[in-house]
Design goal:
The structure is a homodimer. Chain A is of the alpha/beta class. Helices cover 36% and strands 24% of the residues of chain A. Chain A has ten helices and 13 strands.
Chain lengths: 309, 309
């Protein structure tokens, strides 16, 4: 079943201890949709400028991504540049040029409106809300946010996530949103804001899924080399929603409390972790130029092997 | 089967955001032996001064800990005081008075020499080596160390761990010992130094077990309140060795590569994590005054529930 992905398509300048690249394809919508495309038909809603390269469009097409909602307008594509610390655990933004993204007002093609799965990348909460309202018959909707919206657009954000099924954020954002340092308490407060499912991402340490009164914890995959972590969180989101769409998981249809649903959500978190780990293996989206579904499933099995006891 | 535990018995002054206590029972040997005592007969080798309180001795006796190797000498017991940061992730040592521990030279009672399991708490590497040499017929021996020995007693430490079956250290120590930031690379270098089994502890994020060419990762238990993390790493060690002793795991007897051994080591890591998590629930060793084996096994089952997919 198909997934609608909304967010930024961007060009990135990235500097890591392994080297630097400029103007490579990036943006939350790009990473989410590439990761999700391995599991389910994926449709994007985004905006690019007239500098958007044919070969970058082609990468999305090669992954079967539906570009009917990709708006092209005069001007330049969103540009972001950042540099990572030696241990890759911190990054500093060097430049953010919103360009055509400054006026982004996501409009859904008619062919998107009845898609059952929706994931909203990190954009202004009111825009996220506007997209959700354009859709009909959703089985599962949710998304991501960031410290900037939590801090300065709090009311708008709370109004937006109230209707979400799931929220994916990192641990520092969870702390900021809840006002609780402890992850378990933070989760309880966030679940009271609306979403019944919360995934707190912990970078190299993995992620925790909270679903009503249960939780599931996955450790991070141990890579021998983290080449470039840009987009890993978005690829996690793509693997997560992609797997749920592939399986046709329907949280609205009454099997909400079942053990099988908890297991499907846990597996979605594993596939999210798998996609995040592959993302780190090369610069930008490069790993997805060659990645095969068989490699994804093999890594899923690895997660089983190193967590089972 | 019985376990010999060597290390410090101390009095601690601890300040956390939850309050402060002074001169409460502590020390690596104390924590390791209390945790191990839930699984297997435990014998300690340590030194205390004439200020060592009868009630503190009684707590160990109540847990069936063999005190034949607890030396009592004139003077004061080792004293340590520290204060934790607000998020509990850092601590600052305020005071270290070695007192009678300064001249500690562990001597094993004859009744200890043929015990099959040995765990060496964090003391000077040459003393750790001396203990190991006094034992005969060991099935499994290993221990802990710390940044001080890694930095200033490196050769002595390397000579000591060469003969160990397992080494338990935290992530920053693993990085320091190996010179590698990446955990997987660090582990490969450390396994080449002698031990076939390495556990890297990651605080609230859990632990990673490396055993030859396999690894196993356990996430940390999510506590709603970390009351006092003092001794958690030592309790991990106690649960780890205790479980292996309870099961009679014998790494010398040829089934070294078997899947079942890998599973036993993984379960030992889970029991270690369980004991570490209980330790954090109250000041010092207080949680062990009431803790029951049934609670330990229930938490083991919880680990299964929140990691299975």
């Amino acid at each position: 079943m198909s997934v609608v992905v909304v967010g930024s398509v961007a060009y990135d300048g990235i500097e890591t201890p392994h080297g630097s690249v400029d103007r490579i394809l990036g943006g939350a919508c790009t990473y989410i949709s590439l990761a999700a495309s391995y599991f389910a038909p994926t449709k994007i809603v985004a905006v690019v400028g007239d500098d958007f390269a044919k070969e970058d469009e082609q990468l999305l097409v090669n992954h079967g991504v539906d570009l009917a909602g990709l708006e092209r307008v005069p001007g330049k594509t969103f540009y972001w540049a950042g540099v990572y610390s030696a241990d890759m655990n911190d990054r500093t933004t060097l430049r953010t040029d919103l360009n055509v993204f400054a006026d982004f007002n996501p409009k859904l093609p008619d062919s998107y409106r009845t898609a059952p799965y929706l994931i909203l990348g990190n954009i202004q909460p009111s825009l996220q809300r506007g997209v959700r309202e354009q859709m009909d018959g959703l089985r599962l909707a949710g998304g991501d946010t960031m410290n900037y919206w939590i801090k300065d657009y709090r009311d708008e954000l709370l109004e937006t996530i109230r209707d979400w099924d799931f929220l994916l954020i990192n641990d520092s954002e969870a702390r900021m949103l809840s006002g609780e340092y402890n992850i378990k308490r933070a989760a309880a407060k966030i679940l009271a804001l609306g979403p019944h499912t919360l995934v707190i991402k912990r970078g190299e340490y993995g992620a925790v899924l909270f679903h009503r009164d249960r939780h599931f914890i996955v450790p991070g995959y141990l890579l021998e080399e983290v080449f470039d972590p840009t987009g890993a969180g978005d690829c996690f989101a793509g693997g997560f929603i992609g797997y749920l769409a592939e399986r046709g998981v329907d949280l609205k249809q009454g099997h909400v409390e079942s053990k099988e649903l908890a297991r499907e959500l846990a597996r979605a978190v594993i596939y999210g972790s798998v996609m995040g780990s592959f993302c780190c293996e090369n610069f930008g989206v490069d790993r997805f130029r060659t990645l095969k579904r068989s490699e994804i499933d093999a890594r899923f099995d690895e997660f089983k092997a190193f967590t089972e006891f």
